[in-house]
């Protein structure tokens, strides 16, 4: 069996980069890591198939060494289907996270923080909370709500309260609040 060194190097790089991306907090990077790992594993399965040969159907008096083993091909097709299902599931999670929280990063759980503090693993310098609004557009008008962005962002998933009487005509946030019957 001959080994293609180029495919092995590419496979190793894909697996290494995929594992690095898988350890990130951003769900988009996790998705890219899953894609790279699955493609690296597909290359590994392709390498285990060995050299190309005749079809696996036995015909006449052919040498058994010339036939190709069909098992790695079946495993490769199965791995492709599993990777597609996993990527589809991750895309659904990323979309849902974006719709609910307008972010794709996984945040710490309060219980995780409590356990980290109790065990002494909490480092205030590394583990301190970062403000949610770190944009250079602070002070600019948000086109979705018509409000001026400030340092303190509203709680995740909630729109800032807008007074319908003082809102400009065509202000979508004020119109939504009126439809829901909310008062500022």
UniProtKB/TrEMBL annotation:
Swiss-Prot/TrEMBL keywords: Cell membrane, Membrane, Transmembrane, Transmembrane helix
Subcellular location field: Cell membrane
Entries under InterPro entries matching the protein: CPA3_antiporter_subunitC, NUOK/Mnh_C1-like
Residues annotated as transmembrane: 6-23, 30-49, 74-95
Biased segments, Basic and acidic residues type: 172-184
Source taxon at top rank: Bacteria
Membrane topology: Multi-pass membrane protein
Compositionally biased tracts (Polar residues): 144-155
Residues covered by region (Disordered): 109-184
Statement: the UniProt record of this protein carries the keyword Nucleus: no
UniProt similarity note: Belongs to the CPA3 antiporters (TC 2.A.63) subunit C family.
NCBIfam families for this protein: PRK07946.1
The protein, known as: Na(+)/H(+) antiporter subunit C
Organism: Nesterenkonia flava
């Amino acid at each position: 069996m001959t080994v293609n060194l180029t495919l092995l190097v590419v496979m190793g790089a894909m697996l290494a980069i995929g594992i690095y991306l898988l350890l990130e907090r951003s769900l988009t990077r996790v998705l890219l890591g899953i894609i790279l790992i699955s493609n690296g594993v597909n290359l590994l399965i392709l390498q285990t198939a060995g050299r190309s040969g005749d079809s696996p159907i036995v015909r006449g008096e052919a040498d058994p060494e010339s036939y190709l083993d069909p098992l790695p091909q079946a495993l490769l097709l199965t791995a492709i289907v599993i990777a597609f299902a996993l990527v589809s599931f991750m895309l659904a999670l990323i979309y849902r996270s974006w719709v609910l929280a307008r972010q794709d990063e996984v945040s710490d759980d309060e219980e995780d923080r409590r356990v980290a503090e109790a065990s002494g693993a909490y480092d205030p310098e590394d583990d301190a909370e970062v403000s949610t609004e770190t944009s250079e557009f602070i002070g600019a008008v948000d086109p979705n709500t018509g409000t001026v962005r400030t340092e303190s962002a509203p709680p995740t998933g909630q729109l800032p309260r807008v007074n319908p009487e003082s809102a400009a005509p065509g202000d979508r946030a004020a119109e939504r609040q009126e439809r829901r019957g909310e008062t500022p």
